[in-house]
Design goal:
9 helices; Glutaredoxin; alpha+beta; 235 residues; 50% helix
């Protein structure tokens, strides 16, 4: 069964939602039959990457509020993250456009390491203070999960997966996604936001039960008898 997750690297609730979703999946006995696909979404597509600007100042400018108020809001989010076992270092976070990071995630998907890449990107942005719009930063991250450095650099330079990222974003609009994280279960049910683990678990169970009832049989119990095989043997 497929679960699709629309998210943005710069979304603090997306990382928290990832942790809560993972906790639910860990409690689900049929988790090996669940396929996760991360989908791209941009909260600030026109954002200009500003390594010399604090994320507090970015939030203040973006929301039209005072700097201290912005810091207070970020501190509240950091405490929420801490409750999920995450460390948010907003003082060192680099305001960065996430489009290039989403392309990196698509490359990782094509090499079957997408979830590892998403975890990397969140940690790089929220914990390690890295610029996720920097090609060399993404190339270095890629090498730690088995991606070829030359391929990663070439993909980013040529924007090989830009169209796929745009396709994800457009698909989100068609589905009526207004914010992230947004979890879609077997294209039948959706959960919006970093909900409690119990909400995710209940939705996984419900979706999986219906999916299992409708999916084609993968194996059957067979009573053996006389047959003819494709090789021409009959016995």
């Amino acid at each position: 069964m497929k679960i699709e997750i629309w998210s943005d690297v710069m979304c603090p609730f997306c990382y928290i939602g990832k942790r809560k979703f993972e906790a639910a999946l860990a409690q689900f006995p049929n988790s090996s039959d669940v396929q996760i696909e991360w989908k791209s979404f941009q909260l600030a597509p026109d954002m200009v990457t500003s390594p010399g600007k604090s994320i507090h100042q970015f939030l203040a400018d973006h929301k039209g509020m005072g700097l201290e108020q912005a810091k207070g809001l970020n501190n509240q989010v950091a405490q929420m993250a801490k409750a999920s076992g995450l460390t948010y270092n907003f003082d060192t976070a680099v305001p960065a456009n996430s489009f290039k990071a989403h392309q990196y995630g698509r490359l990782a998907k094509h090499h079957n390491v997408q979830d590892a890449a998403e975890e990397q990107l969140f940690k790089a942005y929220f914990t390690d203070g890295k610029n996720i719009d920097d090609t060399e930063t993404l190339v270095q991250l890629g090498t730690t999960i088995g991606l070829n450095a030359a391929e990663t650099r070439r993909m980013l330079d040529q924007q090989t997966y830009a169209a796929e990222v745009e396709e994800d974003i457009n698909e989100a609009m068609q589905l009526g996604v207004r914010g992230v994280p947004f979890f879609v279960f077997d294209r039948k049910y959706a959960v919006s936001g970093a909900q409690d683990t119990s909400v995710f678990l209940d939705t996984i169970k419900k979706s999986f039960t219906e999916w299992a009832q409708n999916k084609p049989l993968q194996s059957v119990e067979t009573i053996e008898g006389d047959v003819c095989t494709p090789g021409g043997d009959c016995n």
